[in-house]
Design brief:
- It is a single chain.
- With 83 residues, this protein is mostly beta strands.
- It has one domain (3-78).
- It has one helix at residues 72-78, and strands spanning 3-14, 23-33, 37-42, 49-53, 57-68.
Amino acid sequence: MADFWIIEYSAKSHEDDSGERGKSVYLQHIAIDVDSIVTIEKTNYDDAHTFSIDTGWSYMGKILKKVTEDEVMAEMEKLPLKK
């Protein structure tokens, strides 16, 4: 069974954005399969890291929780909706 991290992020970017910095967004959540993570880099912001995944996307944020594949949807539904 796969393990996932639920991450709260404040910026995201794609490797095809030709050097453009991560676009800021309102705090959002994503569940990432830990096996899809290519790199994790520490940022200069408190406990935030940049998580780069094998789809080319990178997310700057923090890990909220580690869950199994069966728990992902239930845990994501517990999080407050961000606008």
